[in-house]
Recover the amino acids of this structure.
């Protein structure tokens, strides 16, 4: 039980990390603007949830269709954590060491999109200038921002989904 509880999600997590990395490299080579599209981010979430569910199902089968809430969530969480950690590492290397120009382009486009949204909700011009200056002074792909993005953008929302899935997949063995 303990062996499959860690081995299966680790395997699925490594696979997820490779898939997410391939998607990121594909987007990098084809069109950097894909990184800024909402559907691109949603597709990454979908891949994470699919891998997490597959890990849960495989673990449940390996344990004779019984998996506690805790073990269900652990299986899902290890899969997702491993996958998005690999993805984050690959994008960090890609945009900090392989191609700084790409990171500068994404930073500029991201800032422009943020300012556009702020303008549309009626933000004052002085606040816009302050926000632009603050965003321009930051490295979008620094290790601190990469970890922050990993936690806030991926781990927390995907963990909430994982809690719901763990509740749906849990099945305790009958008591005698």
């Amino acid at each position: 039980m303990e062996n499959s509880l860690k081995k299966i999600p680790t395997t699925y997590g490594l696979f997820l990390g490779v898939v997410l990395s391939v998607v990121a490299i594909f987007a990098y080579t084809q069109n950097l603007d894909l990184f800024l599209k909402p559907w691109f981010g949603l597709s990454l979430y979908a891949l994470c949830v699919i891998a997490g569910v597959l890990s849960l199902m495989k673990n449940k089968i390996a344990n004779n269709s019984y998996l506690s809430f805790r073990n269900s969530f652990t299986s899902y969480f290890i899969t997702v954590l491993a996958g998005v950690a690999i993805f984050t590492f690959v994008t960090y290397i890609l945009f900090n060491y392989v191609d700084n120009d790409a990171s500068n382009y994404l930073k500029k486009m991201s800032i422009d999109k943020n300012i556009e949204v702020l303008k549309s909700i009626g933000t004052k011009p002085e606040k816009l200038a302050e926000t632009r200056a603050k965003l321009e002074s930051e490295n979008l792909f620094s290790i601190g921002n990469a970890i922050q993005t990993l936690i806030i953008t991926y781990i927390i929302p995907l963990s909430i989904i994982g809690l719901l899935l763990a509740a749906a997949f849990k099945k305790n063995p009958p008591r005698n």
User: Anything to note?
Assistant: The chain is about 80% helix and 0% strand. Residues 69-98 form the longest helix (30 residues). The mean pLDDT is 89.
